[in-house]
Amino acid sequence: MIVLGIESSCDETAAAVINNGKICSNIIASQIAVHSPYGGVVPEIASRKHMEAIYPVITEALNEADITLRQVEGIAVTCGPGLIGSLLIGLSTAKTLAFALDIPFVGVNHLEGHIAAAFLSGKIPEIPFIALVVSGGHTSIYLVKNFDEYQLIGQTRDDAAGEAFDKAAKLLNLGYPGGVVIDRLARNGNPRAVAFPRAMKDSLDFSFSGLKTSLLTMLKKRGCDFQDSELPDIVASYQEAIVDTLVEKTIRAAEENTVPRIVVCGGVAANSSLRERILRETAAKQIELFIPPTILCTDNAAMIAARGEMMLKNGLRSKLDLNAVSRWPLS
Ligand code: KG4
Ligand code: ZN
Questions:
Q1: Which residues contact ligand 1 via a Cβ below 6 A?
Q2: Relative to the alpha carbon of 108, which ligand is closest?
Q3: Which helix (H) or strand (E) element contains residue 261?
Q4: pTM for the whole structure
């Protein structure tokens, strides 16, 4: 089935075409340059930029897939969770196209989309599996018994892991978004140079706000006067505290539930240290690991099309009065 996916929940305008689980095109227009002077996403600006980008991005996705709109058999669109103004641009576009072309469309949960990214490349995870969903707004561990059947087994009590990266980068004046900058800088640092705290060791829940505070306290003590040469050690140690926690709890979740399969997804799954560590530690414990290529970890529309195609093939259809939702927990 040829499915056009549309994603506009935050600061990427994205469109993709997939055909029976194979990616034909995956186009992403990032708004990073527009938001970076503000140190974060400005929702009003994001909506306007989505409006400008949505048709060019869809056109490019169709061109690259070498198809016309008339060949599209179904549309999948993110309808939550996310920024309402941003979501509405993608959703209204999807409804308009579905109505004009007289084809079905489905609203997709963005987090389900992140999980579905693991079904787009190579080996497909068997069900059940443990899913670590780590993005800018979410850090949760689910026992996935099926799409539509999620048992939440751990979640953050405060900041998401992506937020912890972004806030640290802001404190250190490294720019926005922080995860990718910290990832790059940390490669030249010593992850054991600074002893940052690991919170909630006995639980499968997470807490990252203490980590951020401990960085802030350290910077205040030093009067922010550290050498640039110390930065790699600081960010490598900070990143290590996040990676340690994510890896340790996800593996424990797999062991406690006797589910020897883990999916790691969401923007933070693009982190090179997290990828290396979870690969090494799952291999040592004979746990199968499914982690999408980095381009499918950060926001994209191929993952939305992937989940949408499953839904459409199961006969699911959304109606034209479908609304966008800012919060939409998986369980
Ligand atoms: O999934 P995503 O693209 O958007 C949301 O759904 O939130 O995740 C964005 C988050 C941001 O916090 C960003 O800093 C983080 O993912 N991120 C990374 C890396 N690339 C993106 N964090 C750590 N290392 C990376 N390489
Ligand atoms: Zn996301």
A1: 10, 135-137, 162, 165-166, 177-180, 183, 266-268, 270-271, 298-299
A2: 2
A3: strand 261-265
A4: 0.97
Element spanning 262, H or E: strand 261-265
Mean pLDDT, all residues of the chain:
96
Confidence class of residue 176 from pLDDT cuts 50, 70 and 90? confident
- pLDDT (0 to 100) of residue 224: 62
Q: Which residues are within 8 A (CB) of 133 and not within 5 positions of it... i.e. 6 or more apart?
A: 111, 114, 115, 139, 140, 141, 142, 265, 266
Pairing of strands 105-109, 74-80: parallel
Q: For residue 229, how far is its CA from the centre of ligand 2 (angstroms)?
A: 32
* Closest ligand 1 atom to Cα of 110: 6
> Which residue, chain included where needed, has tokens 């953050």?
156
- Of the candidates 80, 45, 76, 82, the residue with the CA atom closest to the CA atom of residue 61: 76
**Which residue reads 């994001």 in tokens?**
46
Of all protein residues, whose CA lies closest to atom 16 belonging to ligand 1? 267
